[in-house]
Write a structure and sequence with these properties.
Elements lengths: L1 E11 L3 H18 L8 H4 E2 L4 E12 H15 L4 E10 L2 E8 L6 H12 L6 H14 L4 H13 L3 H14 L5 H12 L3 H13 L6 H16 L3 H13 L12 H14 L3 H13 L9 H15 L4 H10 L6 H4 L5
Antiparallel strand pairs: 1-3, 1-4, 2-3, 4-5
Helix pairs in contact: 4-5, 5-6, 6-7, 6-8, 7-8, 8-9, 8-10, 9-10, 10-11, 11-12, 12-13, 12-14, 13-14, 14-15
């Protein structure tokens, strides 16, 4: 039985000497250990000029044995790498059966300090220590795109936005095929109200990711919000449509933003004079009980009421009254016409 297999990523070996050893190990293991039953082709995945193993996007049908052989081979080679990572998925009918994330984990300074800095970046109060570790990783390997990206993230958390944009850009300069630095830089541009730049970065993050990666839909959601700030509601609605049509599992970070997406899709439809579509979107908001959205209860009723009124449907007055009781700030302008 075969399954759809997707592999993407890059392992960097830092020098022509290390690279040459890895190629020889690849050849030996493929022939003698895996009996040529792997998905990787030496000519297609090795780049001598940059001393890397590069898999921009491999899509194939493979058996479980071939999958295991390929993952085993990548895991083995990763321990000789100085930077990079590879993600692999095996799916059936759109559902993820297996997922592997492979990255270097050896005693080279660039590796150990990067892993240390990445962990410290998750701990409040340890941001300065994270910066020190990531600085050391970059000194160990000046092209360490992941270390630049994490240092940018820490600078973002510390509200050092100029430094964050600088490091996200350095990450992109080191390797432009990953979505993470584009996504991070887009967030900083949005914070700085540089919405046009944010849209470009989020678009690039979408292009460099696949729908199986959470960052793909995180980027679409963020892009939609930046487009709304630019009053480009048609384009924002398109991005949100991709988001709301996706069936996220509870463990996917996008799951908690489903209500946010329907709510903002409804706002876009109101701006586009599509009240019936807006009503449908706002109805979904009421069906989703929880989410990371900070939508006030009053505004949920207010804008469903606006959509119902504009669509010529009943129930809008009840929505306005409920919104008023919940403290919605803009409801009076809609109620005043019915108070005389």
């Amino acid at each position: 039985m075969t399954f759809k297999t997707i592999i993407k990523g890059r392992l960097e070996f830092g020098s022509t000497k290390s690279y040459g050893k890895v190629v020889k190990m690849f050849q030996w293991r493929v022939e003698n250990f895996h009996k040529n039953d792997v998905l990787l082709n030496e000519e297609e995945c090795f780049n001598e000029e940059d001393s890397v193993l590069s898999i921009p996007r491999l899509i194939a049908q493979s058996s479980l044995k071939t999958w295991r052989n390929t993952i085993s081979l990548l895991d083995y080679l990763s321990q000789y790498a100085v930077a990079g990572n590879v993600s692999a998925w095996q799916t059936e009918n759109g559902s993820i059966l297996r997922h592997e994330f492979i990255e270097p984990n050896n005693d080279r300074t660039a590796v150990t300090e990067y892993l240390k800095g990445r962990q410290l970046a998750k701990e409040s109060g340890k941001y300065e220590d994270a910066i020190i570790a990531l600085d050391t990783a970059i000194k160990g390997y000046s092209k360490h795109a992941q270390a630049y990206e994490r240092r940018a993230y820490v600078n973002h958390l510390m509200e050092k936005y100029h430094d964050a944009i600088r490091d996200y850009t350095k990450s992109i300069d080191a390797f432009s095929g990953a979505p993470e630095p584009f996504y991070g830089r887009g967030i900083v541009h949005h914070i700085k109200e540089e919405y046009e730049k944010a849209v470009v970065d989020f678009s690039d993050a979408v292009k460099r990711s696949i729908p199986l990666q959470p960052i793909h839909y995180k980027s679409r959601r963020r892009k939609a919000y930046s487009l709304m700030q630019l009053k480009e509601y048609e384009e924002a609605a398109k991005e949100l449509r991709f988001f709301v049509l996706r069936k996220f599992t509870p463990d996917n970070p996008n799951y908690q933003y489903r209500r946010w997406a329907f709510y903002h899709q409804g706002l876009c439809f109101l701006e586009l004079n599509k009240p019936l579509e807006a009503v449908k979107a706002f109805e979904q908001v009421f069906l989703i009980e929880a989410g990371k959205d900070n939508i006030s209860e009053g505004d949920k009723y207010l804008y469903r009421g606006v959509a119902r009124q504009q669509a010529g449907l009943t129930g809008f007055l009840e929505d306005f009254e409920k919104a008023k009781s919940l403290g919605a700030k803009k409801v009076e302008q809609y109620l005043v016409q019915f108070q005389n």
